[in-house]
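Narrative of activities, Objective 1.

The group set out to show that a structural description can be obtained from nothing but a protein's sequence at a throughput compatible with the screening campaign. Below is one input-output pair from the validation batch, recorded exactly as produced.
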Amino acid sequence: MKTVLTMALALCVLTITTYAQKRDMKLEKILQKEIDGFRGEIGIYVHHLGKNTTVSLNGDTIFPTASIVKVPILVGVFQKVNQQQLQLSDPFVYDTNRVYGGSGLMQFYKDSAKTDLSTMVSLMLTYSDNVASIWCQELAGGGAEINRIMDSLGLKHTKVNSRTPGREDIWKKYGWGQTTPREIAQLMLLIRQGQVFTPRLSDKMYRYLKNQFYNERSLSQFPAHIATASKTGSVNDARGEVVLVHGPSGDFVFSVLTKNNKDQSWTRDNEAENLTRKIANTLWNYFEPKDKFQPYAPVL
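Output recorded for this entry:
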């Protein structure tokens, strides 16, 4: 009952906040010009909390999450913590049968290596570890349980598809997970504002999201001393990122999601990744004109 009431309160707060938002037409025009000509589909959502202004360009369109799905998985794990079915200190033993390709370090663990839930959550978010993420999804009760939590938060398009019964066909279209630019930004904001389960648990989730190894995209476009929380996602034809920035003028959250990208390269100058950096730099210099950062350029 406590969890349901907490989620209901979070949804009410989110609805009130959304109602009062103002559309930033100037920024919208700047961003629209920047994405014109992108060879793929792109969606952007921006919310400056201090000004309570927003920009939404295809902000309610569904996109693949790729590894950004690990944010909903994080919430699923913490539901079990909230229900006292799991503790972050719980021990686990790694089995090499769990080996799964892609990003991450756990696939290189020795068989029977000992770990704990906190380490797995850290690997899932900091290094986007696929083995740890699949394990965390299981511990959360599976994709269907995580999807029920997203529904309770009003995030009806944010779903886990992989290894989720009944979602096999939609998995073929969107992959591991799906969301919209608006919803994934709202989920990050709910966590930041202490509105998921309890303020204490939200705070712990947020701390995990602040430690990012993959910092060469949007994070490279903010001064190093600025605190951020974020998650990237990448597959061949889709790149995305959600970021919450603690700027001098106030916090702002934004997401950039893409799909059906023509440039499917895995090089530093990938078109979608370059564009994401450019958007992040534009946002910083737009919101912080007195603290302009380096001109947009790919980081070496």
